Automatic annotation (TrEMBL):
Source organism of this protein record: Oceanobacillus luteolus
Keyword Transferase set for record: yes
Protein's UniProt name: Histidine kinase
Keywords: Kinase, Transferase
A molecular-function term among this protein's GO annotations: kinase activity
Family matches, as PANTHER family: SENSOR PROTEIN KDPD
Record-linked InterPro entries: Histidine_kinase_KdpD, Rossmann-like_a/b/a_fold
Length: 229
């Protein structure tokens, strides 16, 4: 349950994009929301559908969502398959959540480099004139050590029981116990990689796959589908 905020005339929105600076921006927004005792929202925008995310993008989104849970952020907003300009998507969220302050990074990735030139800021201000925009300087040299870049694009897959373990399959069947996304290791002819899925409690989980089989154990749960939030 989210804590009841004492001040509702201020609402903060943090906009993150792929790169090592997303967590820093979220923590900056959280600190400001704590000082002001007001609601905090975090959003990211991507032109691709969630199911087309590669391992890198998926891991970033998973980590941001987990961090938002840890910090008791009011809402994590993923706008995937977004064909409109970034400013339009941000403005829509700002309108619907009554946002008064927006935090964006200075140069997280090339897609957001227009931020430093003022074009995105100007576009946002044309859409919503009542917001204050905070541009946080970030360090391009920061590196992320939490991601393994040696995976192919994720594909829909399933796990079914196979004696004392689980076997990965790419065919829908009634005896499948888990549904998720499989990231195959680059350079292997076998199904070796990582299988990611969402538990019935809404937590992202992952297991390693070696030669079609799960390495380790999985606590039994009903059929779980990977859903967009």
């Amino acid at each position: 349950m989210k804590n009841v905020k004492g001040r509702m005339d201020e609402r903060i929105l943090v906009c993150v994009y792929y790169g090592p600076n997303g967590e820093r921006l979220i923590k900056r927004g959280h600190k400001l929301s704590q000082i002001m005792n007001c609601p905090l929202y975090v959003m990211t925008v991507d032109p691709l559908p969630y199911d087309d995310f590669d391992a890198e993008r998926s891991n970033y989104v998973d980590r941001w969502r987990e961090l938002c849970d840890e910090l008791n952020v009011d809402e994590f907003i993923l706008r995937d398959n977004e064909r409109r300009p970034v400013s339009k998507a941000i403005a829509e969220v700002a309108h619907t959540r009554n946002i008064t302050q927006i935090i964006i990074g200075q140069t997280p990735q090339s897609r957001w480099e227009e931020i430093t030139k003022g074009s995105l800021v100007n576009s946002i201000l044309k859409e919503i004139t009542f917001v204050d925009i905070h541009i946080v300087s970030v360090d391009r040299t920061l590196k992320s050590d939490s991601l393994d870049m040696d995976f192919e694009k994720g594909v829909r897959a399933f796990l079914r029981k196979d004696e004392d373990t689980y076997r990965i399959t790419f065919t829908r069947a009634r005896d499948n116990l888990y549904e998720g996304i499989f990231y195959k290791e680059i350079g292997t002819d076998f199904n070796n990689g990582i299988f990611k899925f969402v538990s019935k409690h809404g937590k992202t989980r992952q297991v390693h796959i070696t030669d079609d089989l799960v390495v380790g154990e999985i606590k039994e749960e009903p059929n779980v589908k990977l859903e967009k939030h």
